[in-house]
Amino acid sequence: RKEVEQDPGPFNVPEGATVAFNCTYSNSASQSFFWYRQDCRKEPKLLMSVYSSGNEDGRFTAQLNRASQYISLLIRDSKLSDSATYLCVVTPVGAGRRALTFGSGTRLQVQP
Amino acid sequence: DAGVTQSPTHLIKTRGQHVTLRCSPISGHKSVSWYQQVLGQGPQFIFQYYEKEERGRGNFPDRFSARQFPNYSSELNVNALLLGDSALYLCASSLEGGYGYTFGSGTRLTVV
Question: Does residue B96 surpass a pLDDT of 80?
Answer without folding.
Answer: no
